[in-house]
Structure formats: C-alpha cells, structure tokens
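Researcher: Here's a chain I'd like modeled. Treat it as a single chain, no partners, no ligands.
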Amino acid sequence: MTRQRRAQLSQMEGRRVSLSLVDGSRIDDCQLVLAGRSKLWLFVNGHDAFVALGRVTDFWEAA
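Model: Modeled as a single isolated chain. Structure tokens:
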C-alpha cells in the first residue's frame, strides 16, 4: 500500500469501512478504530479485531 493510501486510511479512523484482504476475503461494515503503522484496530460485530496492514489490498467507506 502506498504512503498516500495509508494516509487516506488514517483519515478514515472512527468511520465505518469495508476491507478487501490478500486472501480474497472481505471484512464489511466495521469501525476503523485506529490505523497504525503495521496493523489496523477494527471493531467488528461487537468485538475488537486486529489486522496486519500488509494483508489489506483495498478499503472503502461503508455505505
């Protein structure tokens, strides 16, 4: 992920997002709590989850 895309991701902290991962799976409509240097802190279905930034191929704001 480019530096510019990482900056865009950081700007989405506190918002509902969807993520596409390298294995082809997706995490839809979760809250992005914090976008760190190497991992994302997400709130998904009432639970905290941590995803390595290297596993994320794309992201967008959830509708």
